[in-house]
Amino acid sequence: AQSVTQLDSQVPVFEEAPVELRCNYSSSVSVYLFWYVQYPNQGLQLLLKYLSGSTLVKGINGFEAEFNKSQTSFHLRKPSVHISDTAEYFCAVRQKGAQKLVFGQGTRLTINP
Amino acid sequence: DAGVIQSPRHEVTEMGQEVTLRCKPISGHNSLFWYRQTMMRGLELLIYFNNNVPIDDSGMPEDRFSAKMPNASFSTLKIQPSEPRDSAVYFCASSSQLGASPDTDTQYFGPGTRLTVL
Fold first, then answer.
1. Pairs of residues, one from chain A and one from chain B, whose beta carbons lie less than 8 Å apart
2. How far, in Å, CA of A85 to CA of A49, rounded?
3. CA end-to-end span of chain A, whole Å?
4. β pairing state of A87-95 and A101-103
5. Fewer C-beta within 10 Å: chain A N or C terminus?
6. B111 and chain A in contact, CB less than 8 A
7. For A46-89, how does the pLDDT look when each residue is reduced to its tens digit (9 = 90+)?
8. How far is B6 from chain A (nearest CA, A)?
């Protein structure tokens, strides 16, 4: 079985500041890793995903994430945030060969002007 | 493409009533997923279908919940009878599970149905 831990339930940052949202996972088998974003009153939208290859993955809206197998982490970063980045961010894992996504509890990113 | 369509967007009902949530997946997608989102438990997978066949319903909380997919373009999630603890946002997602590449297996989510059971 897989599990995902998002270490911060809320992250407040100032506009144009960098941000890192942390995600650690646990799995006894190889997994794929995902970050989804949920804007208020909307469904989840895929930000980026790691399937294989380069451990640094770039996604939409200037976000990137780095897969670290030894630390079982997949932290999300953005060098300069904007007010429009205010949303909830979910890290998820999926076992290779399976379809079931396991989500973390989410991190609420709040951008202050 | 219109994306995944869910209806209704909001549902308020009284305890004991039957509730039916509806989902239309993206055209051409052959996998469909139902999730529930609550503050306490986060996002949980309830059930998923491949080619209209239920594959894993281990997340369905109890017999009051049932899901069907009569054809490739429509699915329902029914709660009967509903209880206040069923209040949550229910999401439907679809993907194209062709088995060829995980890159094609991204799940696309609908806007959700916010259910309130009084």
1. 46
2. 18
3. 41
4. antiparallel
5. C
6. yes
7. 999 998 888 999 999 999 999 999 999 999 999 999 999 999 99
8. 10
